[in-house]
């Protein structure tokens, strides 16, 4: 007579000690390069669990699912290069996985939504990245205002042919600033803007009271936000409702000489319209994201002479990756102790990530 399948545990509940023999398995599914960025072996060894570092051969196609089945981890620590968790394994009633501790940002390439929707616990670097993305947004805006894209060309001119009006440098002080979206990045950006005595307006699907409490003015419409902004920060998440939302008419509504900064998602913007506006010279662009990434020299936006383009590096800087690893280890300890970790991914957050 066949043995009945073990009942599936509720992944929302912490692992009881009787269930685990006090040392549940934790699998670190990171490449060697990611391990060096985020962790040291000593830190992981201090965990009250059986820590196993998957070798890169175990992460290879054809070996990954077998490696997971052999270890039977209650927790998997994942990163940028972790292969997708096999749906067939996750859907089995006896699957032991309870928690996916993602060291970096978006989890969509690793964890299926169904795992989150049925209560599987998933965390990422949470709010750790927001201050650095906001810092990068400010850098992009200042670079565009000072027309950094033309500096090399200007320096190449004979000194006698250089005139400062050729660069058309501008200041951020006293400008009208628009912010589209009001997530963690936008909220971290507002304090950075205060020393410039700017006038900030925000359009977002959040209560107006939150915007006012942050020292900004709620804007009645996206059209009004764009028409009234000398510098526009695009910070909105990409969802089915926001895909292509920043259209050609909205971009055309920006005042002449405006700066458009995007540290949100490239898919929120009509990129063809963005390229057109830049080529006319009417507005300046400062972009950290694009519709198609990674960027290459052949990408349309990298060929714009006046655009400031960075290769999606607005997240934590290299010197902050250790903080992301420390947060992941803290979350692991909290989970194993039956406590709630930080940076939990809900279905709503999952849907807003890309």
Task: Please describe the topology of this protein.
Blueprint (H helix, E strand, L loop, with lengths): L16 H4 L4 E5 L2 H7 L2 H5 L4 E4 L10 H8 L3 E4 L8 H4 L8 E4 L10 H5 L3 E3 L6 H16 L5 H6 L19 E5 L3 H10 L5 E5 L4 H6 L3 E2 L3 H6 L3 E4 L13 H6 L5 E4 L8 H10 L3 E4 L20 E2 L11 H16 L10 H6 L2
Helix pairs in contact: 7-9
Concise summary:
Helices cover 32% and strands 13% of the residues.
Summary tags:
single chain, 354 residues, alpha/beta, Rossmann fold, 2 domains, seven-stranded parallel sheet, five-stranded parallel sheet, elongated, disordered N terminus
Give structural notes:
The chain has about 350 residues and is α/β, with parallel strands linked by helices. It has two domains: about 15-125 and about 320-350, Rossmann fold (3-Layer(aba) Sandwich), CATH 3.40.50; about 130-310, 3-Layer(aba) Sandwich (Rossmann fold). Helix content is about 30%, strand content about 15%. It is built from 15 helices and twelve strands. The protein has a seven-stranded parallel sheet with strand order 8-7-6-9-10-11-12, sandwiched between helices. Helix 12 links the parallel strand 9 (about 230-235) and strand 10. The longest helix has 16 residues, at about 130-145. It is elongated and about 70 Å long.
